[in-house]
Design brief:
There is one protein chain. By secondary structure, this protein is mainly α. It folds into two domains: 5-95, no CATH class; 119-178. It contains six helices and five strands; from the N terminus they run H-E-E-E-E-E-H-H-H-H-H. It has helices at residues 5-8, 72-80, 95-108, 119-125, 132-168, 170-178; strands at 19-20, 37-39, 56-57, 61-63, 66-67. Strands 2-4-5 form a three-stranded antiparallel beta sheet, with no helix packed on it. Strands 1-3 form a two-stranded antiparallel ribbon. A hairpin with a 2-residue loop joins strand 4 (61-63) and strand 5 (66-67). The chain is elongated. The termini are far apart.
Length: 179
């Protein structure tokens, strides 16, 4: 689990909390450490009271006739909104999940260079057995493509710059055109 058992068992201001299935006796549904607490539907516990099969229980946990289970959504709201005592939780348990998500994103969306989108492919495709003169021609072709793109970017930025200047000066140019 991403949160510690102590964090999961944190009570809110109404005395409600999340419970772990391993806290209950599978046959009776009674809490192992507080016999006044019991689960409403004992059948829910079947096969999930062992430590390695533990599940979070967020409903139908009673002390006498009062439900003291905290909904998972309420727990999440308390953590997200930094409501005491949930504001002191640590998130190190989530680092593994974030790393996995990062790896999935990197595989699914490889980085692409706008200037040289196929540079890595270019280097992978250069055949070491190819004559050096052919490799040189290929490299010069790549350099020429880079220079062409740089020129296009320069032209576009220059035109854009002058376009803005012209649009700001329209009244002045209109007077000159009428003469």
């Amino acid at each position: 689990m991403c949160y510690s058992n102590q964090e999961i068992a944190t009570e809110d201001s109404h005395g409600r909390r999340l419970f772990l299935s391993c806290e209950f006796n599978e046959k009776s549904g009674t809490h192992k450490y507080d016999p006044a607490i019991h689960i409403g539907n004992v059948g829910r516990l079947k096969g999930i009271t062992a430590k390695n099969k533990t599940k979070v229980i967020d409903s139908q946990v009673f002390r006498k006739d009062t439900n003291i289970a905290l909904l998972k959504s309420d727990f999440a709201d308390y953590v997200c909104n930094d409501i005491e005592p949930f504001s002191a939780f640590k998130f190190q348990g989530f680092l593994g999940i974030f790393e996995t998500i990062k790896e999935i994103i990197e595989v699914a969306c490889p980085k692409v260079s706008i200037c040289l989108p196929n540079l890595q492919k270019f280097f992978n495709d250069i055949d070491v057995e190819m004559p050096s003169s052919q490799r040189l021609v290929d490299v010069f072709g790549l350099v020429a493509s880079m220079l062409e793109m740089m020129m296009q970017l320069f032209i576009v930025s220059t035109i854009r710059s002058y376009e803005e200047a012209i649009l700001k000066e329209v009244p002045r140019y209109k007077k000159k055109l009428r003469r």
